[in-house]
Amino acid sequence: MNNLSSNFEKEYFLLKVMNFFILYTVLVLFSIPLQGGIEWALTFDHYNHEYPQFSPIFANWIAYQKRDESGFWQIYKVTWGEPEIALTTEYYEHCYPQWSPDTYWIAYQRDDATGYLQIYKIPSSGGVEIVLTSDSFPHYKPQWSPNGSEIAYHKFDSTSYSQIYKIPSDGGIENSTIHCISTIFHSPSRRNRMGAHF
């Protein structure tokens, strides 16, 4: 078992596997060696588990979303041979967890009292959810910068299109990359040189 645990930390990746039961279907987490071999189940109950993400350091924890008894997607984590741990419990949809590079935080999208999807984060050890965005537009699929100082995501904003935004991971003012693109392409010298017409 110790050898399996060591191999799991170093060599395993996650598969989303569908198990068929008599009256229903659930998604559970499995791992499999990179070189192929026997699958190992990491979750076992009768709820759907999706979007597994290894922790970036040591890969000894996996964060994922689970539609549990609350009826909502919640953020969970699990490690080899241990029970699942729920990180969120509020009656909102929590989806697409992403570890911070130092593993201390997990960011995700969540709907809330604003009626829109917002970007949240929570300590990976458990604690209080922290909201990072709060306007009246939906925000999707956060991704951490390599140094953990910023979080990027896409947002359907007032342009009526999905735009790329970023925000400091400690919270603050959103910045849209569309402003950078607009500055580049509307500069006369750049516009002529790049053949763009706006």
Structural notes for this entry:
- With 198 residues, the chain is mainly beta.
- It has one domain (2-194): TolB, C-terminal domain (Neuraminidase).
- The protein contains three helices and 15 strands.
- It has a four-stranded antiparallel beta sheet, with no helix packed on it.
- The protein is globular, with a radius of gyration of 20 Å.
- The N and C termini lie far apart (63 Å).
- Residues 1-25 and 179-198 have low confidence and may be disordered.
List the topology elements:
Blueprint: H1 2-11, E1 12-20, E2 25-33, E3 40-41, E4 48-54, E5 62-67, E6 73-78, E7 85-86, E8 94-99, E9 105-111, E10 117-123, E11 130-131, E12 139-144, E13 150-156, E14 162-168, E15 175-176, H2 177-186, H3 188-194
Antiparallel strand pairs: 1-2, 2-3, 4-5, 5-6, 6-7, 8-9, 9-10, 10-11, 12-13, 13-14, 14-15
Helix and strand run = HEEEEEEEEEEEEEEEHH
How many domains would you count in the coordinates?
1
Q: What is the CATH superfamily?
A: TolB, C-terminal domain
What is the highest CATH level, the class?
A: Mainly Beta
Separation, N- and C-terminal Cα atoms? 63 Å
Number of strands: 15
Helix content: 10-25%
Gyration radius from CA atoms, angstroms: 20 Å
Low-confidence stretches: 1-25, 179-198
**What order do the strands of the largest sheet run in, or round the barrel if closed?**
4-5-6-7
The average pLDDT score comes to: 80
Describe the main β-sheet briefly: 4 strands, antiparallel
Structure classification: mainly beta
The CATH topology is given as Neuraminidase
